[in-house]
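Quick log. Single chain, no ligands specified.
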Amino acid sequence: MDDKKGAVAILQWRSSFLVNGVLHEAAYDQALIAAERLERAGAVSASEWIDMVRQANAALLRHQG
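-> predicted structure:
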């Protein structure tokens, strides 16, 4: 996997889902699906995917908190 490709994919994912740092449940589900698709397509590594899921989890908790 190209590191630049992964970085660009992550930045695009963040700009799509984590703009405000808060996710509602529907957006959270979509963020996880998008992150999984990126990982399966080889655009991000497994460890990058884990970081993306953690970021989505934190954003969901900020919504609920």
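The chain has one domain: 3-64.
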